[in-house]
UniProtKB/TrEMBL annotation:
Lineage: Bacteria, Bacillati, Actinomycetota, Actinomycetes, Kitasatosporales
Region described as Disordered: spans on this chain: 162-182
Species: Actinacidiphila acididurans
Keyword 4Fe-4S tagged: yes
Annotated Uracil-DNA glycosylase-like domain residues: 44-212
Annotated Pfam families: UDG
InterPro entries: UDG_Type-4/5, Ura-DNA_glyco_family4, Uracil-DNA_glycosylase-like, Uracil-DNA_glycosylase-like_sf
Family: Belongs to the uracil-DNA glycosylase (UDG) superfamily. Type 4 (UDGa) family.
Keywords, sorted A to Z: 4Fe-4S, DNA damage, DNA repair, Hydrolase, Iron, Iron-sulfur, Metal-binding
Sequence ranges of Low complexity compositional bias: 166-179
Source superkingdom: Bacteria
Protein name, per record: Type-4 uracil-DNA glycosylase
Amino acid sequence: MPTSATRYDAGPFLPPGGGLDAYREAAAGCEGCPLFERATQTVFGSGDESARIVLVGEQPGDQEDRQGEPFVGPAGKLLHRALTDAGLGEEPAYVTNAVKHFKWAPDERGKRRIHKPPTLRETHACYPWLDAELRLVSPDVIVALGATAGRALLGPSFRVTKDRGTPLPLSPTATPAQPDAHPPVVATLHPSAVLRATDRDTVYAALVTDLRTAAALLSAAAAPRSAR
């Protein structure tokens, strides 16, 4: 049970350097907030270190926590379909979450693990891992999937209903250390919101529309990146 003395900061667990593999290995032992106590394992990001697009969700779900990979459950399957429909199906992507441990509570019968949204304090504690991923991948575009990812990348005033679908700059407090790594952020709905929606077709279409905005930004950035 966390106390007032509990430290919320993943920073001390980061490795002194290295690539994504070094950070993934170090993250496996992260105890930067109390969420590690109930999670099966750390779920670090997955994908190509040279990917031009990074997709950031909220946190691992039940299946991700069991398998150790992000977006492998129902929301992940829907996301991959939406990426294809948006013209990004062939584009290598790096996928990760703002929080790397599954936060959950048992249902009334104790048979199912029910997702609990992370607090702002837990999201802030985990941000050093996301910051490192963005610095190492150095994408052309970041997609924030849902409110938690949006606030982590765009600041506490972010609202999905107000800010989704428009390219926005990273929050000054969320900018990676690499000076030239300032990719635009396109915020959209989390795929799980589509699965929960009563009008699923309409909400899914909104997700695809926002992903098409990200696809257009990638196309515009293709020429400068190829000249690097």
